[in-house]
Amino acid sequence: MNAGLLRHRVWLQRADTTADGQGGFTVAWRDVCQLWAQIKPSSGNETYRYGQLYPTMTHQVTLRYHPEVHVKDRLAWGTRVFEILSVRNIDERNQILELYCEERVDV
């Protein structure tokens, strides 16, 4: 992999859940580590839910292998947030990861 393509500095974030004392819980995202990544838009879509428009964008994110990257996590790049939908370890060599992510676009 050409390291020059990894030009986006992203935060890997993990959800922490805390009981709220009334039978529910709150979710807070904490930073796990920073990674260099290549972010390429794949497709866009708009759906209606409950009478509101929900635009989404999918992205392919490529980065060096890191054992902490899981589908339950997300990536943050500036004010943008990418939910990790799948993680692919290229050739199972623990060198390169390809992530399929979805970014919800606020309107």
Description:
The chain is mainly beta and 107 residues long. It has a single domain (3-104), classed as Thrombin, subunit H (Beta Barrel), CATH 2.40.10. It is 0% helix and 68% strand. It has no helices and six strands. It has a six-stranded antiparallel beta barrel with strand order 1-2-3-6-5-4. A hairpin with a 2-residue loop joins strand 2 (25-49) and strand 3 (52-64). The chain is globular, with a radius of gyration of 15 Å. The mean pLDDT is 90.
Helix content: under 10%
Unreliable residue runs: none
Query: Based on DSSP secondary structure assignment, what is the total number of beta strands?
Result: 6
- Anisotropy-based shape: globular
Order of helices and strands: EEEEEE
Q: Kindly report the CATH topology.
A: Thrombin, subunit H
Structural class: mainly beta
Number of helices: 0
CATH superfamily: Bacteriophage SPP1 head-tail adaptor protein
- Name the CATH architecture: Beta Barrel
